[in-house]
Write a structure and sequence with these properties.
Protein name: Opticin
Structural class: little secondary structure
Helix content: under 10%
Number of strands: 5
Mean pLDDT: 87
Number of domains: 1
Pfam families: LRR_1 (PF00560), LRR_8 (PF13855)
Radius of gyration: 16 Å
Organism: Sinocyclocheilus grahami
Signal peptide: 1-16
Order of helices and strands: HEEEHEE
Strand content: 5-15%
Number of helices: 2
Largest sheet: 5 strands, parallel
InterPro entries: Leu-rich_rpt (IPR001611), Leu-rich_rpt_typical-subtyp (IPR003591), LRR_dom_sf (IPR032675), SLRP (IPR050333)
């Protein structure tokens, strides 16, 4: 905890907190005021809920290998610059992704949801335009795994 608090007093752009025993209560609310932080690694911890006190400056968030069950629109709305979200190996189900969950994440380019509890493609995912693949005439393989 002391090291985490010390890190939050320094101007950093990448925060490595993976492979620990951090739960939601272990994330200080002051983290959301760290406006220089662009990337946070919180994978392989003990998070049950999507973290709510993350810096709005985040571009990349690694939350894989936790036990997160929901993707709430309110928490994602606090991350308007988010480009990459890694949610692999959690407990997210199709119905636990709130409707329009990514409505306030226009920069989101990569979303990883592998190895969750999805039974279908959730309706809350960012919309893919009808002509998204129209100019990819040489595309021979597309993986949606």
């Amino acid at each position: 905890f002391f090291i985490l608090m010390l890190c939050l007093m320094l101007p950093i752009s990448v925060l490595y907190l993976q492979n620990n025993r951090i739960d939601n209560a272990g994330l200080p609310t002051s983290l959301e005021r760290q406006l220089t932080v662009r990337v946070v690694y919180l994978y392989d911890n003990e998070l049950d809920d999507f973290p709510t006190h993350l810096p709005p400056s985040l571009r990349e968030l690694h939350l894989q290998d936790n036990n997160i069950r929901t993707l709430p629109r309110s928490a994602l709305a606090r991350l308007p610059l988010l480009e990459k979200l890694h949610m692999d190996d959690n407990s997210v189900s199709t119905v636990s992704i709130e409707d329009k969950a990514f409505a306030n994440n226009p920069r989101l380019r990569l979303l990883f949801l592998s190895r969750n509890h999805l039974s279908s493609i959730p309706s809350g995912l960012p919309r893919i335009a009808d002509d998204t693949f129209s100019r990819l005439s040489n595309l021979t393989e597309l993986s949606l795994v």
